[in-house]
Amino acid sequence: MEARRRSAAVIDLCAGLSAELRSGATAEQALNAVITRSGPELWSTLGAEPTARLTAARYGADVPAALRLAAEMPGGRGAAAVAACWEVTTVSGTSLAVGLDQVAEALRADRALAEEIAGELAGPRATAVMLAVLPFVGALLGLALGAQPVRILLHTPVGLGCLLGGVLLEAAGLWWTSRIVRAVEAPTDALEPSKTRGRRSETGQPYGTLACGLSRTRTAALGAGA
């Protein structure tokens, strides 16, 4: 939940900065306006220390460093793209608003993809729960029928062999299911210039220079998990 809130805060930060920049504000003025308008909500979602460093930007603090600090926190990976755009536009003089719009678009698409993947993982998760519970259900059913499964499993050679085999198969099934889930949920490499250079957004516009967009390699992981 905290990661989702922070991810949404990064998107709101991008959109707010872009709106202020298009109204004629400088980058520092835009940042100050967004922080002032967001107030305590930004402090609680983006993080107290990153927000404090961003607030100090009016006194010459390093904005990209503050954004990268936020990017290290759960759900804040998109802030690294904002930092990259900030640095690129500072050096090249290109429009920061355009880059931020593209970052916000990529972050929204990435969040939508994450929600879609979470829905697709409902089946494997249900399978894992069933694997974990089914042996106990079988034992309870045996007790209800008077078969004494506990005595057979613990006090007979055949039962011990079945118990050992069942435990191994259970562990293997749970491991395999969790492996699929982890592979699909693996985070994307949010800043890879080689992947973003030359790419175009869903609106047909280029993502611009040096990592002002997000890769979507998680789709490949979803296909492999399926």
Descriptive report:
The protein folds into two domains: 2-119 and 187-225, no CATH class; 121-185. Helices cover 74% and strands 0% of the residues. The chain is built from twelve helices and no strands. It is an all-alpha fold and 226 residues long. It has helices at residues 2-22, 27-38, 40-46, 48-55, 63-71, 78-92, 96-120, 122-144, 149-155, 157-185, 193-196, 218-225. It is rod-shaped.
**How would you describe the shape?**
rod-shaped
Element order: H for helix, E for strand? HHHHHHHHHHHH
The major pleated sheet works out as: none
Helix content: over 70%
Number of strands: 0
Structural class: mainly alpha
Provide the residue-averaged pLDDT.
75
End-to-end distance, in Å? 26 Å
**Count of DSSP-assigned helices:** 12
Number of domains: 2
- Rg estimate, integer Å: 25 Å
Fraction in beta strands: under 5%
In terms of per-residue confidence, which ranges show pLDDT below 50 for 5 or more consecutive residues? 188-211, 213-226
